[in-house]
Amino acid sequence: MLVMKFGGSSVADAERIRTVTGIVKAQLQRKPVLVLSAMGDTTDHLLEAAGEALSGKKVSVQKIQDLHAKTIQDLELKASVQAEITPLLKELESLLEGISLIRELTGRTKDYLVSFGERLSVRIVAAYFRARRIKAQAVDAWDAGFVSDSNFTQAELLKESWDLIPQALLPLLDEGVLPVVTGFIARDRNGSITTLGRGGSDLSATIIAASCGAEEAQVWKDVDGILSADPRIVKKARPVEIVSYEEAAELAYFGAQVLHPWAMQPCQKTGTPVLVKNTFNPSAPGTRVVAALNKKTSPVRLITSKKNVTLVDIVSTRMLGQYGFLEEVFAAFARHAISVDMVATSEVSVSLTLDAAHDLDGLKKDLGQIAAVEIKTGKAIVTIIGDVRRSSEILSRTFRTCELLGVTVQMVSQGASKVNISFIVDNTEAAELVRALHADFFDPSLGRGTS
Ligand code: ASP
Ligand code: MG
Questions:
Q1: Which of 75-89, 118-132, 199-213, 245-259 has the lowest mean pLDDT?
Q2: Closest Cα partner for 244 from 259, 229, 222?
Q3: Residue 345 forms beta bridges with which residues?
C-alpha cells in the first residue's frame, strides 16, 4: 500500500482536484490511502471567522461556503454530495454564533472549528472519485484510528493510534476502497476534536504510512521538493534529491517550511521512505527522505539563512572553574521568557543568539550581576544542513569561502542533531555568503563567488 497526502493548495479548487484525481489514478494499483488538507486557505479563513465572531461582529461563513459550493458545482457533484456538506456548514455557522455570543474561544473550540476544513474537503474529493467510478470513501480521522492527548491546537497522537489506524484502514483497502482521510485532526479519549498543529496533515500521512507498513508516504505540495537554498537569494537553488530523516526534520525548523517538524518521526521509526512531490509538476523527481545516505552524496544538502538575530556575549566576572555559571545564565533567560537559538561556550564565556524581537534591558541588568554582557544586533545566522560526519570538509571549505569574501565569522555552532553547522555573520554579509557557499558546494565547476 501507499499513502498520498495532498496539501491545501493541491486541492484548492475544482481544477486542482481534477489534477489530483489524475495523479492518484495513475497509482491506483498500489492501493493508496489519501490524506487531505482543507481546501486552499480554508483553515486561515476559519480562524479569521472565529476572530470576527469573538469581536462580536456578525458571523459570516460566506467565503468558506462560496469556495466549497463553487467547487461542488464545477465538479458537477451537487446531487451526490450536497446532502453531506450542508449539515456541516450549518453546524459550523451555529458554532460561530456560539462563539460570538459567549465571546470566548478556547483551544478546544478552536480545534472543533478548524476541523470543518478537512471534513469538508475529504467529502468533496471522495465524491468526485466516485463520480469517476473509483470506489472512494471519506473517512474522518476518528474513524481512522487517530487518538490524541487533549493538548488542544498542538495535540500529540497516543501510542494506541499505531494499532487502531491499520485496524481501521487496512480492511477498507482489502475491500478495494480508496480511503480519503482528513489530515490534521484527531480526537482525544473524551471524544473532543483536537488538531496536530498547523501543517499537521503531513504527520497524519506519515503515521498512517508507518503504522500500516506502507511502501512509501508521498507528500504532494506546490513546490518541486525541498530546495537547496531560498530561490530568492540563490537563483540556481535546486530541489534536493535525497535527504535523511534527521536532515529533513532539521530543515523544517530552519525556515524551509516544506514539512511539519514532527512529520518524520513515525516514518523514521519504521524506515518508511517519504517522497515530497509537486502536484503542479508531477514528473519532477521531488525529494526522497530516507534513513541512510550513500557516501557519494555531496556533504551539504542545503544552505539557509535567517536575518535580524541578536548576539549576546556573556563573559563571567567570576573565577575560572566556578560551577553553576551556565545555570545562572540560563535561569536569567528563563525568568525573562526569552528563548535562545544558538549557543557556544568556553570556560568563562557564553555566546548565544536570540530573535531580534525581545526587549533585553531587564535581562542585561540581571546578567550584569554575574558577568560582563555585550549585546550585538543586526546579525544573521547562516546554517548548513549536511552530513556532519564530514564536518571538517564542510568547515574548511566554508572558512575558505569566508576568507575569500572578507567575511568575519563571529560565532560557530555545530548542532547536537549532527546535521547542522551554523555561523553568525553581519546581516549585510549573509546573502552573498549563502550564494558563494551554494556555488562552492553545488556548482564547484563554476568557480567561487558566482551562482
Ligand atoms: N489545514 C491545516 C493547516 O492549514 C493542516 C494542513 O494543511 O496540514 O495548517
Ligand atoms: Mg492548509
A1: 245-259
A2: 259
A3: 350
CATH hierarchy code of domain 300-446: 3.30.2130.10
Q: CATH class for domain 2-221?
A: alpha beta
Q: Which of 178, 197, 177 is nearest to 186 (CA)?
A: 197
Is the minimum distance from the CB of 40 to ligand 1 under 6 angstroms?
A: no
CA of residue 268 to ligand 1 center, whole Å:
22
The string of pLDDT tens digits covering residues 49-66 is 999 999 888 777 899 999
Q: Is 117 in the pocket of ligand 1 (CB under 6 A)?
A: yes
- pTM equals 0.84
For residue 219, which ligand has an atom nearest its CA?
A: 1
> CA distances (Å), 186 to each of 102, 146, 384, in order?
25, 5, 35
Atom of ligand 1 nearest to the CA of 199: 8
> Is residue 166 within 6 Å of ligand 1 at its C-beta?
no
Instruction: List, in order, residues 6 or more apart from 133 with CB less than 8 Å away.
Output: none
Q: Whose CA is nearest to atom 6 of ligand 1?
A: 199
**pLDDT tens across 171-203, in order?**
999 999 999 999 999 999 999 999 999 999 999
Q: What ranges do the domains of the chain cover?
A: 2-221, 300-446
Residues 6+ apart with CB under 8 A from 400: none
